[in-house]
Design a protein that fits this description.
Blueprint lengths: L1 H24 L22 E2 L5 E16 L9 E17 L2 E14 L25 E13 L2 E7 L20 E12 L2 E9 L19 E4 L6 E10 L2 E19 L2 E4 L2 E15 L8 E10 L17 E2 L2 E2 L6 E3 L5 E3 L1 E14 L2 E13 L21 E11 L5 E21 L5 E22 L1
Antiparallel strand pairs: 1-2, 2-3, 2-23, 3-4, 4-5, 5-6, 6-7, 7-8, 8-10, 9-11, 10-11, 11-12, 11-13, 13-14, 14-19, 15-16, 17-18, 19-20, 20-21, 21-22, 22-23
Length: 459
Amino acid sequence: MKLVKSLLLGSAAGIAAVAGAQAADLPSRKAAPVEYVRVCSAYGAGFFYIPGTDTCLRVGGRVRAEYTVGTRYGDAQDAYGTRSRGRLNIDARTATAYGTLRTFFRYELTVSSGFYAGTLGGNQGIIAPGQARNLGATTASNLDLAFIQFGPITAGRAQSFFDFYANDLTFSTFRTADSRLNLLAYTATFGSGFSATVSLEDRNTGTGTRENGAFGRFNGAAIALGGQDFPDIVASLRVDQGWGSAQLSGALTQRKVLSTIAGGVVTQNSADEYGWAVQGGVKINLPMLAAGDHLFLQAAYADGALGYLGWGGQYGSGRIATAGVNQLVIGDIGVTALGNVKKSTGWSVVAALRHFWTPTLRSELAASYSELKLGYTQIAGVYAPGAPIRSLDPKELIVAGNLIWSPVSGLDIGVEVLYTRTELASRVLAADNSGARVAGFGIKSDDAWAGRLRIQRDF
């Protein structure tokens, strides 16, 4: 029995040895290493390494739904508006021997109706008196930002370096510089949070506040605005520290007046004019009130460059208009009947406060006030009977306040109330419900209220 057991064990050992030797002769293939996504903590939360590279990437975005109701100016106009917006952000950063190489991209798709279509930033209430048209729905796609930062250089579509308070708080848009445009900028840093920037900016590509044309009709005289020889030149000095931020900025822009024609006679040949603007702002952190609280204060003045005050090429919704005829157009330059060029001037102030009542409940309050002195007189047909023929020189007050609840991270549910007040130096013709001018009735001042609900998810 012992002999049989020994033979069986020996046979098994021999078979195992032979099998092992044959297996050693077979070719082997190791599994390829798996590229796992690694977290990149160098640039904040949400970044990860693109597999196989040393570039950190963050993909984010936003979905917003809004609903507004309020004042309307005729039966042909909706008393409400709705808006849906989707946003995609892509942020890629790579550490190099010269500093961080950053590429940022933001794209938006928006569908709006009612008062959102044709108003300043979708502000219901900033609608010129006499606007009685139902503007319907609009669909818009927008390359909001697309820039490269490499060391001190910023190139591409970015926020203007003139801007400071760029409608950071509330749901509404105020009279303040806020434009994303094509630019090329150089920023020098000096330590302790101080920096200075010089930027060449193409205002013709901007969002928000754009270049204003050379308008101004005086006794039938009309003028045209020629092309620029160079983009706007912007310079700013900024400081960012624990207490907050402050910035002083200035801009220089060229205005080329081609000609003035009065009665078929050219009274002004091509001439170069230059507009300019200055702005100062401060952001003060208020942790003594609550974590995250802060206050913005800002003031600006412009001469021949009203876009830097937040006034676009036209007034409010685009015009004080009836039946599509402009009654008040905002322009940078006017020409008198004698052929003399006069620039429009103006100033604005902005204040905005954010306060957290609890970590999930906050309020925002903001206001802007602006006054313009136009360098031209409107055509006589816009004035109500008996009104003096003079520049309309608008004054405008905008006030908004809201309450926002954030039940979970990245989700905001809020309501806001908006009030606007517009005053003109002279009465302009009003409109009936069909949009036709009412010959015996004029508007010199106007008040409007609006309410808005917003539900927004950021990720």
